[in-house]
Structures are given as structure tokens and as C-alpha cells.
């Protein structure tokens, strides 16, 4: 008699982990961050909640792994190959435009950003710190040496306004209305206007070096 093949989470740990992570995303989309309870995550994934502790250690670590996988800036330094001799000018345009488009498409990340703005939790503070670490790599190694001590902080301040604006316009469009300053951000033409403005502002920031 052939030996019975055991199917299920014990046999396929990675597949189970991915289903648990996907359950976090589904709950964020449908219920928001208030729905991220251990029993709810386990039920949506279709597994016993003990597997969350077995594979991730805790619910917070599961959520942490999920939000890090969704966060744009946590992934931005992977597989980026550009010429840095311009002080990150072209790199900056690329990553900020990609951020603007990424947040439009990623409804789960929109929920995560709103969560960060509404609650003070260690898991969210850790994500913010991870973003700052990525930013420090880009600023400290690329743009700061290019601009020099006198102008590096001003460049960072300009970039703070551009990046935060890209965040806010997507959140505003996703949760309130489509028109901001008379520009319909749910149309292709409207988004192109914002994208062109981002490029012009970054070009302006780099023109200050000359």
C-alpha cells in the first residue's frame, strides 16, 4: 500500500507564510488596520493561529514583514543601476516618480501610510526608521557630497516637500476627492501635470548647485 502523502502547512511552510502575509493585505484592504487581529488573520488565511507564532514569532512580526514588503522606500535600493556622477539627479527623478505611481496602485500601502499618521506603534516607528535609513544612504552617499556642506540640508528640505507631496496627493485622491488645486488627479492628464511638476522641482533643486 503506497505511503500517504501529507499535505498542508507543515509540509509547505513557505506557501503557508505567503498565505498568512496575503491575509494581512486582504484585511487591510477590506477592514483597515483595526482588523489586524491574530484570530482574524488566521481565519482569513484558513490556518490555525498557532502557525503565526510558529512561523513569524508574533502577530507584530508577521505584520512587520508584510508592511516592509509593501513599503516603496524599503525596496528602492534594490536593483537600481544608474550613474551617480550627477549627484543623484536622474536617480531622484526616477524614484520619486515611481513612488508617485506606486502609491496610486498600492491600496494596502495607502492604508499603511494612514495607519502611521493615526497611531503611535513600535511596528510603525520601525518602518519609518527603515525608510530614513534608506534615505540616509541616498543622501549621505550621493547628494550630500555633491551639494556640499552649505547646500546639502537645503536640498534635503526641498526633497522632503516633494516626497511628502507625492504621498499626500495620492492619499487625498484615494480617500476624499479627485480635484486638488483644480487638477483632476484621477485623470491621466492630471497625473501627468503633477509628474511634470515633480521633474521641474527636482531640476530646480539641482540647479541650485550651479
From TrEMBL:
InterPro entries reported in the protein's UniProt record: Homeodomain-like_sf (IPR009057), HTH-type_TetR-like_transc_reg (IPR050109), HTH_TetR (IPR001647)
Entry keywords, A to Z: DNA-binding
Pfam entry (one): TetR_N
Domain HTH tetR-type as annotated: residue spans: 14-74
Membrane-spanning ranges: none
PANTHER family on file: HTH-TYPE TRANSCRIPTIONAL REPRESSOR SCO4008, TRANSCRIPTIONAL REPRESSOR
Protein's name in the database: TetR family transcriptional regulator
Annotated organism of origin: Chryseobacterium artocarpi
Amino acid at each position: 500500500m503506497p505511503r500517504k502523502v501529507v499535505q498542508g502547512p507543515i509540509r509547505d511552510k513557505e506557501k503557508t507564510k505567503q498565505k498568512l502575509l496575503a491575509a494581512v493585505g486582504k484585511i487591510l484592504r477590506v477592514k483597515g488596520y483595526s482588523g489586524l487581529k491574530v484570530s482574524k488573520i488566521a481565519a482569513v488565511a484558513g490556518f490555525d493561529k498557532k502557525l503565526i507564532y510558529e512561523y513569524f514569532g508574533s502577530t507584530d512580526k508577521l505584520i512587520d514583514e508584510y508592511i516592509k514588503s509593501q513599503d516603496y522606500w524599503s525596496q528602492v535600493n534594490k536593483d537600481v543601476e544608474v550613474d551617480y556622477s550627477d549627484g543623484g539627479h536622474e536617480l531622484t527623478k526616477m524614484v520619486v516618480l515611481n513612488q508617485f505611481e506606486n502609491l496610486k496602485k498600492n491600496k494596502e500601502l495607502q492604508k499603511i501610510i494612514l495607519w502611521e499618521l493615526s497611531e503611535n506603534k513600535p511596528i510603525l516607528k520601525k518602518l519609518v526608521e527603515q525608510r530614513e535609513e534608506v534615505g540616509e544612504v541616498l543622501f549621505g552617499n550621493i547628494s550630500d557630497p555633491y551639494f556640499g556642506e552649505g547646500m546639502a540640508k537645503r536640498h534635503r528640505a526641498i526633497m522632503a516637500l516633494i516626497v511628502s507631496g507625492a504621498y499626500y496627493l495620492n492619499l487625498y485622491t484615494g480617500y476624499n476627492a479627485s480635484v486638488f488645486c483644480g487638477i483632476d488627479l484621477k485623470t491621466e492628464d492630471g497625473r501627468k501635470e503633477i509628474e511634470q511638476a515633480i521633474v521641474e522641482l527636482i531640476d530646480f533643486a539641482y540647479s541650485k548647485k550651479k
